[in-house]
Amino acid sequence: MRVGRLTVSDRASAGLYEDRSGPEIERIVRQSLQLTCEFLTAVVPDDVDRIRTRIQTWADQDGCDLILTTGGTGITPRDVTPEATRPLLEKELPGFGEAMRLHSLPRVPTAILSRATAGIRGRCLIINLPGKPSAIAECLDILRMAILEALAHLRGLDPHDTRPAT
Ligand SMILES: Nc1ncnc2c1ncn2[C@@H]1O[C@H](COP(=O)(O)OP(=O)(O)OP(=O)(O)O)[C@@H](O)[C@H]1O
Ligand SMILES: Nc1nc2c(c(=O)[nH]1)N[C@H]1C(S)=C(S)[C@@H](COP(=O)(O)O)O[C@H]1N2
């Protein structure tokens, strides 16, 4: 299983603070999703072309099964991750963003400020996550079963096969 994790942050990419969200994605994927996987990693500024090129390369050329982005899903002019992601999707999966926002809402009333989306490109599942490190676990927790089911479908495996994805 090959997973791309992309941190989208002007400040982290400029070295103004250490990216903690990217490593948090890796921790959660390994522990919570229990996926044995190889990670491709990158930190880019909030730039549509940089985000889109990275996602497209990982999905089309590098054989990623799953791409998780973090950051840039908000409402400021520099928050462009959904705009960069959506045109790449062959099938959008709006339920992923809806689930993240609804699940987070009771504890984080500002969760609905995230415009995160998700979808399929080829055999790759692409999901936007909010940028805050604390948001990673909150959001991936509610998406866990849907991610595993989607990965099984995309890899042509019997989605009801309980064997862990290799
Ligand atoms: N990748 C990250 N690593 C560490 N802290 C982060 C990260 N992303 C966000 N944060 C924290 O959450 C706060 C709010 O995140 P915010 O959405 O403003 O950042 P961002 O838009 O993702 O990054 P930037 O503003 O640099 O483009 C940040 O001020 C920072 O403290
Ligand atoms: N679970 C969770 N969702 C969250 C948050 C959070 O802290 N936890 N932050 C909210 C806030 S304050 C914003 S501005 C939006 C967008 O954040 P981003 O621009 O870093 O993607 O995510 C929202 N969703």
From TrEMBL:
The gene is mog. It comes from Limisphaera ngatamarikiensis. The lineage of its organism: Bacteria, Pseudomonadati, Verrucomicrobiota, Verrucomicrobiia, Limisphaerales. It comes from the Bacteria. It catalyses: molybdopterin + ATP + H(+) = adenylyl-molybdopterin + diphosphate. This is Molybdopterin adenylyltransferase. Pathway: Cofactor biosynthesis; molybdopterin biosynthesis. GO terms for biological process: Mo-molybdopterin cofactor biosynthetic process. Keywords: Molybdenum cofactor biosynthesis, Nucleotidyltransferase, Transferase. PROSITE patterns: MOCF_BIOSYNTHESIS_1 (PS01078). Its EC number is 2.7.7.75. Residues 4-150 form the MoaB/Mog domain. It is an enzyme of class 2 (transferase). The keyword Nucleotidyltransferase applies. Pfam families: MoCF_biosynth (PF00994). Catalyzes the adenylation of molybdopterin as part of the biosynthesis of the molybdenum-cofactor. One of its GO terms (molecular function) is molybdopterin adenylyltransferase activity.
